[in-house]
Structures are given as structure tokens and as C-alpha cells.
Amino acid sequence: MINDKYLKGYEAKNHEDDIYNAWEKSGYFNPDNLPKINGEERREKFSIVLPPPNVTGKLHLGHADMLAIEDSIVRFQRMIGKKALWLPGTDHAAIATQTKVEKELSKKKVRKNDLGRDGFLKEVNNFAMDSQGTIISQTKKMGSSLDWSRLSFTLDDERNLAVRTAFKRMFDDKIIYRDNKIINWDPKGQTVISDDEIIYQERKAKFYTFKYSSDFPITISTTRPETKVGDTAVAVHPDDERYKNLIGKEFEIDNFAGAKLKIKIVGDKHVDPEFGTGALGVTPAHSQADWEIAERHNLEIKKVINEYAKMENAGDLVNGLKVTVAREKVVEWLNENNLMEKEEEINQNVSTAERSGGIIEPLPKVQWFIDVNKRFKLQKSNIKGVNIEDEVTLKELMLHVVKTKQIEILPERYEKVYFHWIENLHDWAISRQIWYGHQIPVWYKNKDSKNEEIYSGIQAPTGDDWVQEEDVLDTWFSSGLWTFSTLGWPNKTEDLKTFHPTDILETGHDILFFWVARMVLMTTYLLGEIPFKTVYLHGLVRDKQNRKLSKSLGNAIDPLDMIEKYGTDALRMSLMVGVAPGQDVKFDEDKVRAYKKFSNKLWNISRFIYTNTENFDYENFDTSSLEDYQKNKLKELEDFKKEITQEFSEYKLYLVTEKLYHYVWHEVADKIIEDVKDSVSSESPNINNQYMILKILEEILKMLHPLMPFITEEIWKDFPKENKDLLMVENWN
Questions:
Q1: 187, 302, 327, 600: which sits with the fewest CB atoms below 10 Å from its CB?
Q2: What 3 state SS string does 100-152 have?
Q3: pLDDT per residue over 272-292, tens digit each?
Q4: In what helix (H) or strand (E) does residue 534 lie, and over which residues does it extend?
Q5: What is the pLDDT of residue 389?
Q6: What ranges do the domains of the chain cover?
Q7: pLDDT tens for residues 203-216?
């Protein structure tokens, strides 16, 4: 007799928790426990890592989109017989997490310095573990078939060993070095940040054109006149006829806004003669481009802004002032001395820190860096076209593996973006001036003295007079090791041997450089192989007005609210259907509601088929009796499934979802069920049609399962097969 549950509509919340518990209890999320296929062990592996969510709070719709895509990919690979592993984990997200905890403590009028480093880190770790528990719970609600027995955290003991091992090897190979160089300084967050952590905000600004003094022969332009007290040169293009005769000359200026300047005129081909006056006032300590000019021409470096965005060593007029106040003072001085030629209002992209919102100040500081241009030899190489005797750079490796298609980026248009970024890559500043994170495994004896000793190791050196570096590593250093540190590296584990390189990395296009490129860098260098074969970049989730979802706009959506109202399967389908790689998702609750209706349609189809095939011996049916109608429909089904299989294999989920929706609703429900309903519901049912509709149901449940795992698993419980296992491990073919 048909199960009573079909007498009502499908209510996802009545089934989903029990189904997920059954999946977990089965152990099938762990590839080591997967059943054999037709009596054979699973030989072909498939692996993918979860981009680790930050332990800073709840998951959002962007995470839900990612989880839906990745789970669909893994479930398909598992069903076609592969030993499929989806590795879970979370990221300590050093700056974001420390900032969050500091804000919470400030509500209690407690500062991190009040607690001391150890006390503060205890607070942060407690917060991180609580948050990780919340994130895991939410991830499970999305139906994610992750192998929780292999859960990792970027700051756990195993990953800490990997980080220290990687650092020491790079230190020993002199790829990691310490130097005084210009970096991006966040005065608000009081730390260095990388180029990729900068958000550019368009703001109104003044563009000033002036001279240093009345007798100086060149006019310059800038939006930051306060920095000009630190100028040591003016750069012009060597072929610019206006300034050719001045190249090489030096000028002393007794008073520029209270400061004394020595200015040398240099010819540099990187100067754009069409921009402004064609002459660039060079402030080496406070501009990356100017720093590079200074290096090329051996110019003096004068630091006139400090870590708190205040002027220092800058002359009596502006010393000690905030840069914004100093700017007004210098402009006032230029006008009073008739040196200002014009002021224009322009739109300017202002560099701000992503996490704190602070305006970035380029400053020279002693920091730790990864040299992307140093030549070295790989210890081993499974990279096509690179032998261990070849001298290469990190930059060359990062370009090579994508140019030779050893790593494919989807959509392909992002390859050009990747190449442009890598070709213009600077050395990576990896030290951060915060407490939370992997403390740099370097120890000093007699630091900053002539007889300074530096030691780097996995363990601290013996002796009492060694002091560890206080800075921590950029979060992306540890997450750059993610595809192999999660598999047990630096130990030679069976997991590492079996599952690396991983098959695909699925992540947002907005972290192509933050994370994807850094994984390519770390893996090619440390393992001599690629981290993944394919990169699938999904877009951002936006509202139907195409705005980014955010609390400040009041359009943020909690995926758990959608799951409560419509079910996980409906949410998953709404995020994937018709959305190609790299394309932003326009989220609309009406779309989720539509796929709730689709879930009910599938439920009703199943009810009709089960009601009208009771006592039918499906497994022992003799298919030789089938007539042309059934044969044609089953042949169409077979051809359709081949098409779906191919598109699943090519990660074209946007096509799979759309085609399955139309096939189930318009072909199965509107046509086939209508064609056969009288013949199968009569007192003498047509057994050929009974077999056909059961076969169609079996196949659409299999095809839909990766996308809509909960409802398909629930319906599968009642499918008339003896000794069947969970649908999640049912053989695809």
C-alpha cells in the first residue's frame, strides 16, 4: 500500500534532518566506506576541497550557492562510481576574526592589551570554535555531503605543522626574505595588507598643479600635496622635449611648506608625458610606483608619514598633523606663496582596507616577503614542461600551468584576468602586525644589532636568549596550502597519494587572486604539481535590482530562512538554474517559491506512479514485451540521460538544472503521465506502461539527486527494488 506520506504535499522540514542523519550514519560521505560498484572496488578517485568559510559568523547566500554547486558535483561523481572526497574545513581569517573579537570586547570596555597576547588569543580561539560549530550546522542544512571525519581548520595543529614546514623550506631557499620595502599600511587596523585586500572607492578629490618654488623649472601635479615634503626627485619621460635638457640636474629648495628639499630630475620611460604636466614629483617612501622609480635611479628615501597617518620629519609647518589636515596647510601655503597654478575637482579611486575601511598609506617598513621572481629548481616535478634541472620563478610556474592548460579556468575569459594579474605581480608581503594567526616561525638573537642571528625552524631553537618574531603570517599563506595540508602534508599520507592533485576548485571569481593564485604558487613550489585540474568560478549573489546583498542595504537574506519556508532543494535549484560559471546570481524569493512548486510536482508524479504500480514486479519484468511507444519513450530517456551525464561531467550545472526541470514538468508530467494515466489506473493495467513510468521515475530520481538530494532520497525509500541502498550511492547507470 502506498506510503501515507504521499497523501499530503511535500513538506521539506518534516524530512530533511532525518535524511541527513541517515546519510551521516551510513558513513558514505567518507570515500573509504563507499560500496563497491558491480562487485568492483572504486578505482578512480575524485576530490575537491571546500573553500573554507571564515570563522566570523553565519553563512550567507554566497556560501549557499557555493555549497549547492559543489555538493551537486560531488554527488554526481559518487554516483558514477568514483571514490569521491569532499574535504571540509574553516579558515581562521586572522584580521577579520581578530577585528570581530576586539569589537565585542570593546562593548565590555576591554582592550586586547588589557588581556595580554595569551589571554586575548584564548578569547579569539573560543569565539572561532563556537563560530565553527555554527558554520558546520548551517553547512549540513544545505545537504552538503562533506567527509566530516576529515574536518580541518587553518590554525589547527596539523595545518600549523604544514605552515611551519612550508615557511622553513622557502626561508632556506631564500624565497622568503626580510627587507625594508614599501607596503600597504592600514592606519586604522594597524597592519600591513596585501594588494588584493584593497577596496577602491571612487571619491571626489582635488588635483593640484604647482611648483616647489618660484625658480623651480618644472610644474608638477598631485592629489596629495602634503606628501611632497618627502619628494627627492622629479621624473620625466626621457624623450619629452620639454624637459630633456633638465635630466640629471639637481635643485636645492630651502623652503617648501616648511621643509628643505633636494630634487633631482630623472628620465624614466615609465612616466606618461600626456598625464598632467608630464612631470612626476617622486615621493619614494609613500608610493609604490615612486619607490620603483627610486630603486631604478638610486634616489634617497624620505619617510614623512608614520603608521598613524600623521606627518613626521616633515618640517615645522605640518609636523605631527594628520595627513588630511596637513594637506590643507600645504595648499594654503602654496596659495600664499603664489606657487599654485590651478586646482581641479576630479573623481579618484581611493585605496581602502577591505576589513577596517581605513585609507591605505604606502609606507616603507621592514617586513617578510615571498620573492616571486627569484630563480630556483624544483625538488621534484610532475608539471608538464618543467624538469627538476630547470631554473624557474614562482611567477613563471603560475603562468605556465594555466597557459599549457594543465589548469583550466571556467569561464575561460578569466584566464586573461589571471595572466594580467600574475604578469604584474609584486613580491608578496606575508607578515601581519596582529596577534591572531600563525606566528612567524622565526627567532632572533641580538635583534637589530650588528651581530643579529636569525633562526627559522619547525620548532623553537634551544636556549633562553632567542625571541620569536611577533608578527603573524597573512591568512592566505595557510589557506594557500589547503589542497594538500588537508590531506596530511608534510607527512606522506595515503590520502595525499590518492587524492592530490584535486580535480576541481569551485569558488567565487572575486578570490581568483586572493586564494586561487596563491594555491597555484604554493603547490607548484612545494609539491612540484598542480593543486587542481579545473577552476570553476561562480558569480556573486545579488538582489533582483542587481545590488550586492548586504546588511547596510537591508537586502541581506539568511539561507536558513529560505530553507525553513521552501526547503533546501528549492533553494539549491534557484541558485543554480540557468546560471553559468562567472555569472552573478540574481536572487529572487519568487524563484525559490517556483522550485518549491517543482518539488511538489515531483512528489505528485511519484505518488501517481507508486499508486498505480503497487504489486508490480519491477525487477523481474520481461522487457521484451515492450511496444513501440514504451521503447521510443525509454530511448528518448536514455538519450536525454546521456546528454545530462555529459553536461554534469563538464560542470554545466546551469544546463543540467534547466533541462531536468523542463523534462520532468513538461515531458513526464504534462505528456507521459497524461498519455498513460487511464491505462495504468484501470482494473487491468497496462504492464508495459507500468514498467515504463517506474523506469522513468528511477532515472529522474538519479539525475535529480545531485541537485535535489533530500526529496529524491525520500522518494527513493519507496522505490520497488529489493536490497537497495541509499540513493546517494546508487549506481548512476
A1: 600
A2: HHHHHHHHCCCCHHHHHHHHHHHHHHHHHHHHHHHHHHHHHHCCCCCCHHHCE
A3: 999 999 999 999 999 999 999
A4: strand 532-538
A5: 94
A6: 10-20+28-156+480-515+526-563, 168-183+367-475, 191-363, 587-729
A7: 999 999 999 999 99
